[in-house]
Amino acid sequence: MRAMKDIFNPGIDIQPVMNPMGFTYGSNVFGPQAELRRLDDIRSSLMNPHCEGPEMVYAIAMDVGKNEHRRLLNELHLLYGVVTYSAGKLGNEPVRSQGHIHKVSSYSGSSTPEVYEVWSGKAIIYMQESDGDEPGRCFAVQAAPGDVVIVPPYWLHATVSASLDEPLTFGAWCDRDYGFIYDGVRRHQGIAWFPVYNGRNELEWIANPHYHPSELTVKSPRSYEDLAITGGTPIYTLFEEDPEIFRFVPDPKSKKEVWNNFVP
Asked: What does the pLDDT read at residue 45?
């Protein structure tokens, strides 16, 4: 197996690998064998469902962590996941996920947020307020290694790899009672804005005609002082230093004022 280089240090000994795609874990880290998402699994959400691209689009491992934190993570209802993407294109689109909304958790009675941290490659965290005909506000947040991006509860979101020749890897804090709802994105045959490479291999955005018209804001990540998350420290390390800092992930109602008119 070939490990990828030049990776942001996430504060936990997990290494993404290719051929085969997945992860290796350090001696003090627990984690499952990665699940693979194939191109055939996501075709229905692409602008061109018949496109060619990597057969293995991405690998995902949910519920990883340091052995010493296994009990605490369960008590706090927190889950840490890692994902790595293939390099390349899906037809004229970048390698990306199909998009989903987080289900209503039995723990909180609410859909839950997600806290992304990019480890390697270039990411665009795409999100829209709704998976209905009116998508609401739409954002494409461009993120580099070390950047943090937060998706609020109930928002449809997808992760886009914005590098043609470098795999994307990221870690994320999620609710332990996670689940993905694809109904809206599949009903509209994709997200409200498709990322597409033009003839110069530059990313552009094309509106999906199956939604009502909307506007897209392309932006950089912001700081999240309103959630006590400061830049420069890995999100797993922030959890180690203060296990309560990500309480809002399984319990989003504890920070309900933050989600009003949220800007990522």
From this structure: 87
In this prediction the pTM is: 0.93
**Pairwise CA distance, residues 179 & 105, whole Å:** 8
**How many of the other CB atoms lie within 10 Å of CB of 29?**
17
Contacts of 175 (CB under 8 A, 6+ apart): 77, 78, 79, 102, 105, 107, 108, 112, 249, 250
65 alpha-carbon distance from chain centroid: 18
Any idea which residue has 């004022």 for tokens? 257
* Whether residue 3 has pLDDT greater than 80: no
- In three-state form (DSSP H/G/I as H, E/B as E, the rest C), the secondary structure along the chain is CEECCCCCCCCCCEEEEECCCEEEECCCEECCCCEEEEHHHHHHHCCCCCCCCCCEEEEEEEEEEEHHHHHHHHHHCEEEEEEEECCCEECCEECECCCEEECCCCCCCCCCCEEEEEEECCEEEEEECCCCCCCCCEEEEEECCCCEEEECCCCEEEEEECCCCCCCEEEEEEECCCCEECHHHHHCCCCCEEEEECCCCCEEEEECCCCCCCCEEEECCCCEHHHCECCCCCHHHHHHHCCCCCCCCCCHHHHHHHHCCCCC
Is residue 29 scored above 90 in pLDDT?
yes
Instruction: Tell me the mean pLDDT in the region 239-251.
Output: 97
The pair of structure tokens assigned to 104 is 């209503």
- At 230 the pLDDT is 79
Q: Name residue 16's beta-bridge partners.
A: 23
CB 198 within 8 A of CB 120: no
For all residues of the chain together, what is the average pLDDT? Answer: 94
